[in-house]
Amino acid sequence: MPEELDPPRKFYGFKPTTFEVANQGIVPAPTATSGAATPAPDPGIVRSDEKQIDVRELNRIAATGLPPLKSSPVPVPENEVHTILRDNLAVANAAGLNDVVIDPRHRTPRQRRLRAFWLWLALINIPLGTIAWIASHPLNESTIVLFTSAIAALGVCNGRLVWHTFFLNTD
Hints:
- The protein is elongated.
- The protein contains four helices and no strands.
- By secondary structure, the chain is mainly α.
């Protein structure tokens, strides 16, 4: 059998550093009726290069307890995002989506877990305790197994109930 040839050499490179544009934005043509000039683009956050930021200076300011900014920050200019968010809030308020009504019958998971704990504790301990008490009066060779089984069942059931309620919180 002839010796197999090596596969051709592969050349690897970096991915392009630009983003692929999936949807080109459609800019509406200016209408002849609009006499207003187009607004200037949003400048974003305006930087202040008055002085260099130094970590030692920040530590000194933090140690004094004074506010770190001596002047008020530059207000963010209104843009179309603020308008859209304001409109969305008005629609949600009109639809009643922001009206919160607390249900008086609502129980937290902890309250439900504790209610179930006390219910199961009563449902398990009353019958088993009654069986253990009846078997212990009089306690003889024929009732010792029933008494021991009832006490063991009380311990196992109560232990499991306490474990599931207070230590194994799965909700």
